[in-house]
Amino acid sequence: MLRYPVPMVPPCPRALVIVAHPDDAESHAGGTVAKFTRTGTKVAYCIVTNGEKGSADPTMTPGRLTTIRQEEQRQAARVLGVEAVEFLGFPDCEVENTRQTRLAITAAIRRHRPDLLLVQDPTRTRRLGASHRDHRVVAEIALDCVTSLACAHLAFPELLEQGLEPHAVKEVRLMVSEDPDIVVDITKTIELKIAALACYTSQMPDRAALDRNVRERATQVGQRMGYRYAEAFGHIANDDIGCRHHGPAPLA
User: Fold this and answer.
1) Which of 19, 52, 177, 210 lies 20 to 30 Å (CA to CA) from residue 72?
2) More confident residue, 242 or 176
3) How far apart, in whole angstroms, are the C-alpha atoms of residue 80 and residue 23?
4) 129 and 108 in contact (C-beta within 8 Å)?
5) Residues facing 47 on adjacent strands
6) 3 lies in some domain
7) Which structural domain range is residue 157 located in?
8) What's the total number of domains in the chain?
9) Which residues contact 94 (CB under 8 A, 6 or more apart)?
């Protein structure tokens, strides 16, 4: 249920999308990302795994699939106007919440310094594919980093040595949330979303089925707000993020 229906939060200067696999960003937020870039928001992607296990082809190898999926992701990002794509390279289907993954995601947040962070929902739902284990774990890590690591100058001192200063994110949106707060009208950008997803021929070879499925899902989401096509998000505002220690204390 929508607690406070907000058609669109005003554009922000910078947004970072952190997802588990190539194609997750476009699948869950492609229309919104296109809407952001068209209004001047600088958007970057952080892809935590290479999706190297995502093939039913018995002749495929993880190395080949990594190359294929990274290139598909770069092409899709270009379609949507995304400025930067980075791959962290953690193992597909085996991501864990460890110091190493928290360090890497904290570094990405500090490097891109977003006002808005888009991540997947960390909860298991009846939509088992959308709440894939990697999706949940990566979202959990990202939220851990936002609340207590990316903004804390005493966390990960090695990042300070790399010039990555603490950064406080102002807003978080959860993709594929079962309890959304925000519905974004993507009627004018759904064609870009579909074009971006069409780049993933290794995952979605049937273009007609892709087009149909994307439109059906976006129609279902849009109905609650009277939009032709939409995407929905859970919303975590600045006051709920809880990060207040994003820099060294001033000298007395």
Assistant:
1) 177
2) 176
3) 12
4) no
5) 19, 87
6) no
7) 14-240
8) 1
9) none
* Tokens 């018995």 -> residue: 58
For residue 202, give the nearest of 97, 64, 86 by alpha carbon: 64
Question: What distance in Å separates the CA atoms of residue 143 and residue 61, rounded to the nearest whole number?
Answer: 32
Question: Whose CA is closest to 118, among 197, 60, 55, 35?
Answer: 35
What is the CA 126 to chain-centroid distance, rounded? Answer: 20
Does residue 56 lie within any of the structural domains?
yes
**How remote is the C-alpha of 198 from its chain's centroid?**
18
Tell me, rounded to whole angstroms, the distance of Cα 29 from its chain centroid.
Answer: 7
Q: Is residue 5 part of a domain?
A: no
In the sheet that holds 171-175, the strands lie side by side as 84-90, 42-49, 14-19, 116-120, 171-175, 230-236, 182-185
What CATH code is carried by the domain that includes residue 148? 3.40.50.10320
Q: Is residue 1 part of a domain?
A: no
Q: Which pLDDT tens digit goes with each residue over 43-86?
A: 999 999 999 999 999 999 999 999 999 999 999 999 999 999 99
**Residue 9 token pair:** 């939060």
Q: How many CB atoms lie within 10 A of CB 29?
A: 29
Average pLDDT over residues 164-170: 96
Q: What is the pTM of this model?
A: 0.91
Residue with tokens 């997750």, as numbered in its chain: 24
